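User: Hi! I have a protein structure encoded as tokens and I'd like to know what sequence might fold into it. I'm fairly new to this, so please keep things simple.
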């Protein structure tokens, strides 16, 4: 039995799909499952991962687990929230004696300051590394291509995509399907030992100008424009969209660390950490599907800008 925390999320749901397609027994953890038919064949552990007893019960009988700290954009203190959840996860692993763990972390997780929400993932890596009985892989993916979906309302209403990062700064970008594929492989083939780090950097580096240009051509908007906006303007948007002030400030700190190269300087691209899905493939599949769906609904009244729900 393999446990998947965050089974309804962008990465967790894809991991579950991989595992079930390969005949694995899967136990899915989430607060709720609005579309249980998508998880046919899996077991459900429905509850709050703030509680050690619940999570330990969910882990019992499992040979491996995918773990993550689900983001809560309304949390008033980001790092406190992350550490609270992280402590529960670690305590449950220790209580049950789980042997094999794949932990979702992030590029930049080795840095001790200046990376916003990645700091909570830094803390979690250190916490998990104190568990000596468990073999652990910390997956450190880069910026999710799926973050680009948040710009669809402004693309529809204004033919623009807004962000705080300069449009000509090269960034690594990855499709979450590639993160899920690697996580599923490790869970099905848990031959790793000790504590390890794996980077996942996407198919190639891209600037926002390049990425948005490709998206625009795919949706037949060749004049689609990437527009850099001041951090304060983005902060106001984030808070207006429902984020806590600390989350907004935390995301802006992370965006600044991406823009100035602090995070990218921690890793170099090679054949091992380069993944398959290109921005062109993402554009004609995931992005195009989301764009078409949005075009059939009344969303053009929404106010831009939007970006970076999570790295």
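Assistant: Happy to help. Inverse folding works backwards from shape to sequence: for each of the 311 positions I chose a residue that suits the local structure. Here it is:
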């Amino acid at each position: 039995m393999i446990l998947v925390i965050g089974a309804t999320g962008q990465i967790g749901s894809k991991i579950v799909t991989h595992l079930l397609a390969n005949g694995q027994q899967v136990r899915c953890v989430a607060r709720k499952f609005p579309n249980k038919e998508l998880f046919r064949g899996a077991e459900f552990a429905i509850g709050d991962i703030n509680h050690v007893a619940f999570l330990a019960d969910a882990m019992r009988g499992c040979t491996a687990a995918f773990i993550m700290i689900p983001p809560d954009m309304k949390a008033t203190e980001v790092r406190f929230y992350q550490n609270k959840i992280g402590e529960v996860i670690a305590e449950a692993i220790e209580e049950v004696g789980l042997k094999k763990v794949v932990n979702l972390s992030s590029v930049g997780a080795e840095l001790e300051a200046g990376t916003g929400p990645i700091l909570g993932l830094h803390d979690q890596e250190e916490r998990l590394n104190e568990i000596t009985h468990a073999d652990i892989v910390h997956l450190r993916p880069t910026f999710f291509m799926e973050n680009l979906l948040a710009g669809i309302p402004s693309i529809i209403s204004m033919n623009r995509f807004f962000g705080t990062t300069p449009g000509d700064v090269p960034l690594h970008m990855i499709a979450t399907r590639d993160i899920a594929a690697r996580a599923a492989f490790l869970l099905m083939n848990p031959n790793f030992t000790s504590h390890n780090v794996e980077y996942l950097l996407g198919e190639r580096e891209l600037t926002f100008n390049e990425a948005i240009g490709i998206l625009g051509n795919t949706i037949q908007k060749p004049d689609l424009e990437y527009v850099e906006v001041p951090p304060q303007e983005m902060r106001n948007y984030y808070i207006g969209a429902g984020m806590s002030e600390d989350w907004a400030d935390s995301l802006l700190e992370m965006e600044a660390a991406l823009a100035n190269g602090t995070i990218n300087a921690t890793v170099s691209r090679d054949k091992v950490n380069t993944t398959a899905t290109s921005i062109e493939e993402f554009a004609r599949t995931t992005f195009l599907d989301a764009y078409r769906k949005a075009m059939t609904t009344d969303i053009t009244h929404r106010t831009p800008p939007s970006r970076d729900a999570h790295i």
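A useful reference point when you look it over: The first helix runs from residue 12 to 21. Feel free to ask if any position seems puzzling.
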